């Protein structure tokens, strides 16, 4: 896996993945940024949410669950001192669908957390406290 980061001025950078996709990163205005994109640590948090959400939906679909929507709300705490690393991350999944089984959703979240989500498992091994919860909503 590869990526390239190009400085675009001030505290702004263009990040390009090895697959050719780009995203603009920027710092806060008080650090010279122009608020043109997410902060790098926000991208890391979004990456964890995306990685885990991909797992949850994939596992549920393989379990023949009729998922119509999946949202993952993340909350993170960071250390007060530099480096301001993540100390805690909580992922809350809101899974919507038809006749979803609670046991299957719980299993999907658990498998992602313990076996499949490389991003959150890596941070967990680095000492970040990572927790998960979920709720199920019936599709209309």
Average pLDDT figure: 97
N-to-C series of helices and strands = EEEHEEHHE
SS summary, helix count: 3
- Please state roughly what percent of the residues sit in beta strands, choosing from under 5%, 5-15%, 15-25%, 25-35%, 35-45% or over 45%: 35-45%
Helix content: 25-40%
**For the terminal residues, how far apart are their CA atoms?**
40 Å
Q: Based on DSSP secondary structure assignment, what is the total number of beta strands?
A: 6
Q: What is the quaternary state of this protein?
A: single chain
Radius of gyration from CA coordinates: 17 Å
Globular, elongated, flat, extended or rod-shaped: what is the shape?
elongated
Q: Biggest β-sheet: count, sense, barrel? A: 3 strands, antiparallel
Class inferred from helices and paired strands: alpha+beta
Q: What's the arrangement of strands in the largest beta sheet?
A: 1-2-3
Poorly predicted runs are none
Describe the structure.
The chain is an alpha+beta fold. The chain has three helices and six strands, in the order βββαββααβ. The strands form two sheets. A three-stranded antiparallel sheet has the order 1-2-3, with no helix packed on it. A three-stranded mixed sheet has the order 4-5-6. The radius of gyration is 17 Å and the shape is elongated.
Gist?
By secondary structure, the protein is α+β, with helices and mostly antiparallel strands. It is 33% helix and 39% strand.
Question: Which helices and strands, and how do they pair?
Answer:
Blueprint: E1 3-9, E2 12-17, E3 22-26, H1 40-62, E4 66-78, E5 86-98, H2 102-116, H3 118-125, E6 129-138
Parallel strand pairs: 5-6
Antiparallel strand pairs: 1-2, 2-3, 4-5
Helix pairs in contact: 1-2
């Amino acid at each position: 896996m590869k990526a390239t980061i190009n400085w675009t001025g001030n505290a702004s950078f263009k990040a390009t993945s090895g697959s050719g996709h780009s995203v603009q990163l920027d710092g806060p205005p008080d650090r010279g940024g122009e608020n043109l994109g997410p902060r790098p640590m926000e991208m890391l948090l979004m990456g964890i949410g995306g990685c885990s959400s991909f797992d949850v939906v994939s596992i549920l679909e393989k379990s023949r669950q009729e998922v119509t929507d999946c949202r993952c709300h993340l909350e993170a705490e960071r250390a007060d001192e530099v480096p301001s690393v993540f100390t805690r991350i909580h992922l809350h999944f809101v899974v919507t669908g038809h006749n979803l089984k609670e046991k299957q959703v719980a299993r999907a979240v658990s498998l992602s957390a313990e076996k499949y989500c490389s991003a959150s498992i890596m941070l967990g091994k680095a000492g970040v406290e990572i927790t998960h919860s979920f709720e199920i909503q019936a599709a209309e």
